[in-house]
Each structure stands twice: as structure tokens, then as C-alpha cells.
Write a structure and sequence with these properties.
The chain is an all-alpha fold. It is built from 2 helices and no strands. It has one domain.
Length: 152
């Protein structure tokens, strides 16, 4: 019996490579989403820290807050609010891209899986044929030996 070979092996490998490329793109988008979330969290922490420092300053220094202090805090709060808005928009765009890329990846993975299933089916059929052929050869060998033993 000849060795098993899957004639569409190159196509299968190409489909697997395509799926892997799309998976890498998806991973990169998730990395961007994580970076946006980290930036958002850091910005929120900075705002909370600035507000806490301003509240604690009069108690530590024994002096009242000035209008300049409050103005600086207000400007920083406005900046963080605007930046958080931009980050939210960027995050929404990134999530939308993730949804699209997930569909693309799943499609490519499904195509590769179909070829993998076809390969498995052909391998199973080849194994069955090989077993049948081996059994047939064993039967022929047994019959030939029996005929030799029975011959005068």
C-alpha cells in the first residue's frame, strides 16, 4: 500500500496561515483595547490624586486654597474629562474593529477546519483501505500456504 498523502496539504497550510494572520491582527486589537483601558484608568487615578492632594493641602499647610489652585484643578478636570471622552470614542472604535476582526478570524478558522476535517476523512478512508488490503493479503497468504500443505 502506498503512503498516505493529502493532495490539498498546501491549501490546508495556506488556510492555517491565513487564520493565524487574522488571529494576530485580533490579538493586536485586543492589545490596543488594553492600552486604552490602562490609559483611561491612569487618567482617572491622576484626577483622583490631584483632587485628594488639593483637599489635603489646607489641612497640612494650614493655609486656605487660592483661586489659582482651584483654577488649576478645574482646568485639569476639564482636560481629563475631554481626554476620557476621546479615549471612550477610541475604545468604541477599537471594540467595533474587534467585532469585525473576530468575524474575519472565525471565517478563516472555519475554512481551515473544513480542510482539516477533509484530511481526517481521507486519512480514515486510507486506513480502512490499508487494513482491508492487509487483511486480503493475509488471507491470500494463508490460502497459498494451505494449498502448498495440501498439495501431494
Amino acid at each position: 500500500m502506498k503512503k498516505f498523502s493529502f493532495t490539498l496539504e498546501r491549501v490546508l497550510e495556506w488556510r492555517r496561515a491565513q487564520a493565524r494572520q487574522e488571529e494576530i491582527k485580533l490579538e493586536r486589537l485586543y492589545g490596543e483595547l488594553h492600552a486604552l483601558d490602562a490609559r483611561r484608568d491612569a487618567l482617572r487615578d491622576q484626577r483622583r490624586q490631584a483632587e485628594a492632594e488639593l483637599r489635603e493641602r489646607p489641612a497640612r499647610a494650614g493655609a486656605a486654597l487660592t483661586g489659582e489652585d482651584l483654577g488649576a484643578l478645574s482646568a485639569f478636570q476639564n482636560f481629563t474629562a475631554a481626554e476620557l471622552g476621546r479615549l471612550a470614542q477610541a475604545r468604541a472604535r477599537c471594540q467595533q474593529q474587534i467585532e469585525i476582526q473576530t468575524q474575519v478570524f472565525v471565517g478563516h478558522r472555519r475554512n481551515a477546519k473544513l480542510f482539516e476535517m477533509l484530511k481526517q476523512e481521507r486519512l480514515t478512508a486510507w486506513l480502512q483501505e490499508s487494513e482491508r488490503e492487509t487483511g486480503q493479503q493475509a488471507e491470500e497468504s494463508h490460502t497459498a500456504r494451505w494449498n502448498r500443505e495440501k498439495a501431494p
